[in-house]
Each structure stands twice: as C-alpha cells, then as structure tokens.
Write a structure and sequence with these properties.
Blueprint lengths: L10 E5 L2 H13 L3 E6 L7 H8 L3 E4 L13 E4 L8 H8 L4 E2 L1 H8 L3 E6 L4 H14 L4 E5 L5 H4 L8 E5 L2 H4 L9 E4 L13 H9 L10 E5 L3 H6 L6 E5 L9 E3 L3 E4 L2 E5 L9 H16 L3 H8 L10 E6 L2 E5 L6 H9 L5 E5 L18 E6 L4 H10 L4 E4 L3 H11 L5 E4 L12 H13 L3
Parallel strand pairs: 1-2, 1-4, 2-3, 4-5, 6-8, 6-9, 7-8, 9-10, 10-11, 16-20, 17-18, 17-20, 18-19
Antiparallel strand pairs: 12-13, 13-14, 15-16
Helix pairs in contact: 5-10, 5-11, 14-15
C-alpha cells in the first residue's frame, strides 16, 4: 500500500455505508482525513455505523440532511448505489464539491498493477477469467470491485509486481477523477440502468470513463463490433486492442473459424474451450487480450479455458436430474443477458423469468425464445413476461409467486432432454436483496428435487 498523503487533514464526507462506505471510511481515517459518515439507516439499526463510531469516526444517521454541506467538506465519497439525483449529492455538485467513489481511493494507494473491466454484460466472467489466467501462470492476482471485496480494501494488501483485477460498474466510474488502470476492458454496451442514468448517452460516457485518464503506455481492450462503443472511446490516449466475434482482424483478437487469434498468433482452438455460448466468446477474447498483455503464456490461457465452465449465477450448471439439466443465470438482470443465455442452448428450454419492473419492455426477448417450450413467470414483471412469451408463440405459460414455486413448476413440465434455465431478464429487488440471493434460492430448490 502506498502511503498516500493526498487525503491527510482533509475534511471528507462519506455518504452511504454498506461494504464500500465502511471500507472507504476506515481507509480515509487511516490516511489521516477528518471523516464524517452519513447514512440513511438509524444508528440503532446500523451496525456498520456503530463500528465506525467505535473507531472514533463521526457518524450522522437517519437521513441525508442537505445542511451537512454547510460544514465545509473538501471531498464527498459516495456509495455507488446512491444516485446523483439525491438532494445531498446534487447540493454538493452545485457547490463545486468533488464527488468520487471508493475506486478512486484504491487507485491512489495501490502498488499493484490495475486491470479494470467494465461493460453491460460479461464483466464477472471476464474478470474471473483474467484472474484465473494470471494465477495459473504462477503470478499473484486479486479480484476486487463488484465481483467481491471492495477495491480500496484489496489495494491495501496487493503488492508491487502483483495484479488487481477490478470489476467496475457505471455507477463507480461516474465517480472517478484520476483513476487509470494500466489495462482496461469494455466488453460491450447495451441499454441498462436507465433508471439510474439520466440517458443512454450518460450511461455510455460512464462506461467509457474507464479509459479517460489512461496514457499512451496503457492498453484499452474494446469490442470492435459495436460502432457506438468505438465512437465513445475514439479520443482515448491508450493503445487500443480491438476484439471481434464477427470479423477477422489482422491486428487485435478474433477467430479464424477454428482458433482464437491475437495479432496473427493462434492462442487456442475453439474446440478446446469449455465455456458455452457465443456471448462468452466476447468475454474470452477480452480476457485473452488482457492476459497476454499482462504477460501470461498461451499454455496457461489454454489450461484455464479448457477447464473453466462459468461463474456462479452466470449460466451456471447446477444439476442433472432425470436427464434434465438445470442452469442458474440469476445474474441476467437485463434482456440482452437472457437473450444470450437462451441462444446458448439448442434444446427445448423451460425459462424461469421475471423480477423488478423498471418500466421497460421485453419485446426484444421474444426473438430469442424459439426453443422455449414453457415460460414460468414471477415477480413484478410476471404479466409483461407472459405477454412476451405469448407473442413468441410459447403455449405453456405458468405464473407463480417466486423462484421456489418456479422450480417446483419447472420440475412438473420438463422432460428428458430439456433444459431448465433461471434467467430472469430483471433485477431481483422486488423480492430478493440481490441476484446472488435469488440464485442461491434457485440452487437450493433444485438440489431438493427428487
């Protein structure tokens, strides 16, 4: 950890706790800042705030009072989940106070080489693959960000000569000022989180921010099949390494139909890759680009791709029962992710879908439902999902209360040779606190089937 002096004796307000807020508060306190923490949950119900109070950190709980801004803070560190429309955050910006997220802190103290991964879909798979490839090459690597431990916590233990692979959301990237990974990856860009961002343009700009501070010595690995994305990063100073699943590239990463090739060099035969689905080819190419740029051998890359079958909650194989295969794709929180999952299977599929209603349509999902024999719908979007399934010609549509009931219903309609796929196309927050909880409930219910 670098003994960074930039926050010493500065008056800093941390808004919002949870894992990132606690980690940021403790780090800033260690770095000599005068920290005040503000969280909406009352102190009596707030174990995180009580922990910080015990450390001598000032805590204000129960609401986000705008009057706090009159105390002359020099910096705001915002929990990524708090929108910029929050009156306290809006007020800070209006007063010209810088508002950052904790990944900025991680950047300032990190001795390790930072590899940043963002995009609408595929972040977790790509991040995991890069980490596994580096580790398999007998090099030390840590994963951080959305995939696990808070980045500014990991940065305190990752040393020089090691890698820190960070999964980054648009929420986090909107709050960076100097953050600059030496290798950055943008897997793809599609409509998502428009309930948080004011527009699609703001969302795209937030993703593209991963490269805004990179220099000529840094690398940007980016999806060349998306014109909108390529346009968004056209002013980058980083060296661009494009990848494509649709065309052969003389420079960059693509496929010649039999192998994945980088800059003319065959890295791995397609037949040797275990991870299913065309959408995962994007993730694999991005990971190969990052790993080879970092100095990982082809042998280590091939070993990982020959064994890696997916991450938890992302088209995760759970069990085979009576010749029926069950897959957990709870991380599919948007239409595109569910389309990708459906297109990975060529057999009759029982689709379990539904969740938080963000007001969007699911019409685009219909084109990918040709193999869906039954749709089992739940959550706030159950009726919308039913209409989409009907428009796709799905004859058997069952409405249930939740994921557990959906598994029971699926076990009744699935027959030998079918796939049962939980791929909700929605966030989980109408019924479950996270997509992980939703996926774990699915796994538990499937494993109880007899």
């Amino acid at each position: 950890m670098i003994d960074y002096k930039g926050y010493q004796n500065k008056k800093i307000l941390v808004v919002g706790l949870a894992k990132s807020g606690v980690a940021a508060s403790l780090l800033l306190h260690k770095l000599g800042a005068f920290v005040t923490v503000n969280d909406w949950k009352p102190l009596s119900e707030n174990k995180d705030a009580q922990q910080l109070l015990d450390q001598g950190i000032k805590v204000i709980c129960g609401s986000h009072p705008v009057e706090l801004l009159d105390e002359g803070f020099e910096l705001i560190v915002k929990n990524p989940g708090i929108p910029y429309s929050n009156p306290l955050i809006k007020g800070a910006i209006a007063k010209g106070m810088p508002v950052i997220t904790e990944v900025e802190l991680a950047y300032h103290i990190s001795e390790a080489q930072l590899i940043g991964v963002t995009g609408t879909n595929g972040k977790t798979t790509t991040t995991t693959l890069i980490h596994e490839m580096i580790t398999n090459d007998d090099k030390k690597s840590y994963v951080a960000g959305n995939i696990g431990t808070v980045a500014c916590e990991v940065a305190q233990i990752a040393n020089k000569g090691e890698a820190m692979v960070i999964e980054l959301s648009s929420f986090q990237l909107m709050g960076i000022r100097q953050f600059a990974p030496s290798i950055s990856i943008i897997t793809n860009i599609y409509d998502a989180h428009l309930d948080y961002h004011s527009s699609k343009q703001e969302y795209v700009e937030a993703k593209a921010a991963i490269t805004k501070n990179q220099s000529e010595e840094d690398m940007l690995i980016v999806n060349a099949d998306q014109e909108e994305l390529m346009s968004a990063v056209e002013n980058t100073r980083a060296t661009v390494i494009p990848f494509s699943t649709k065309k052969v590239l003389s420079e960059g990463i693509s496929s010649d139909g039999e192998h994945i090739v980088m800059n003319g060099e065959s890295v791995i035969a397609l037949r040797d890759i275990v991870l299913p689905g065309r959408h995962n080819l994007e993730n694999i190419m991005a990971a190969i680009g990052a790993a080879k740029t970092y100095g990982v051998s082809n042998e280590s890359i091939r070993k990982v791709l020959g064994e890696f079958s997916g991450v938890k909650h992302r088209t995760q194989f759970v069990r085979e029962l009576n010749d029926i295969k069950f897959y957990n794709d709870s991380k599919a929180t948007n239409v595109l992710a569910t389309q990708s999952a459906l297109e990975a299977f060529k057999v009759p599929t029982v689709l379990l879908c539904g969740g938080l209603d963000r007001g969007n349509s699911f019409d685009e999902l219909a084109s990918s439902m040709s193999n869906v024999k039954s749709a089992i719908v739940f959550g706030e979007t159950a009726d919308k999902m039913s209409e989409t399934a009907k428009s796709a010609g799905v004859e058997n549509i069952i409405k249930v209360k939740d994921v557990e009931e959906a598994v029971a219903a699926a076990s009744e309609v699935a027959i030998s040779g079918d796939v049962v796929l939980l791929s909700p196309a929605c966030a989980s927050w109408d019924q479950y606190p996270t997509f992980e909880v939703r996926g774990d409930i699915f796994i538990d219910a499937v494993n109880k089937l007899k």
